[in-house]
Design goal:
single chain; alpha/beta; seven-stranded parallel β-sheet; three-stranded mixed β-sheet; 12 strands; 20% strand; globular; DUF5131 family protein; DUF5131
Amino acid sequence: MPTWNPWHGCTKISPGCAHCYVYRRDAEFDKDASVVQKTSSFDLPVQKNRKGEYKLKADGEFVYTCFTSDFFHPIADEWRTDAWRYIKLRSDLNFFIVTKRPDRFYKNLPSDWGEGYENVHICCTCENQEMTDQRLPVFLELPVKHQSIIHEPMLEAIDIRKYLAKYHSKIENVICGGESGKDARVCDYDWILSTRAQCMEFGVPFHFKQTGAHFRKGNRIYYIERKYQMSQAAKAGIDYKQQ
């Protein structure tokens, strides 16, 4: 899975951030994950090997971008100008960006952005109803050619019917997933099924990504090891593709 993390570190802004995996991992190395810094991979998309070939190659559908920070973090405003330039240059790659900050999308947006770059897919994460109703009205009006929604970590049942009704033609898919780590909050299977039913109602593809560590099904809560969380979600067989 090709990844590109041009900067590392983030600041917590909502309930979904409480048990952030970046903070959890950095703590193992006595590193302060709230410090946002450029990485040595900042210009990875344009780095070349001795043969003059790009080091970052297409290996799969996406290049997962800025997964140890937020691409639209305010500290990164000036850096993002170059990041966008690299993304435009590498039109052979499809960059997948997840954000909790759609309200900052226009900060240092390229002048030639127009209706969006074809090789950029932006996913807005909404962990509960409050964040959903705060972020989606902003996010779904942005000029982005490829957009999706993710409830991860999903902290409660979430109603997105009004957004699906209005924007179903531009939402490429909706993803759900639980929370990992020893302090993970419970994810309920009924919440997942509710989102799936909403997506099916409006013909929007749905993907159940992972169970999380503590997964409620019926009256029982299961503990699921990290290595099995994605495979257990896949075994549920509830993904929905537009007919």
